[in-house]
Amino acid sequence: MSVSLSDLIVWLVVGGLAGALAGMVVTAKWEGLGRWTGLGVGLVGAIIGGVIFRLFNIAPGLESVSVSLRDVLAAFVGSLIFLAILWALRTRKGE
In this model, does residue 12 exceed pLDDT 60? Predict the structure, then answer.
């Protein structure tokens, strides 16, 4: 599987959007987690969400667009899962 420059750009845009949305939801602040942290969370979330959505065949009809709504939704859900894992690890570490 080869990855083109356009694929990388789409992943950055989708990851940044999903990370920003997840950061706003988790922190309940407009600025969320910040630009770079949000991008990182969004990219990891895109991977997690993409695997989950494809594995369970969630919303298969949404992938007809180049940057599909399914990809954004999967990245958002994956970002929330990733933030929950980080929160659980941080809380457990503090015990």
Answer: yes
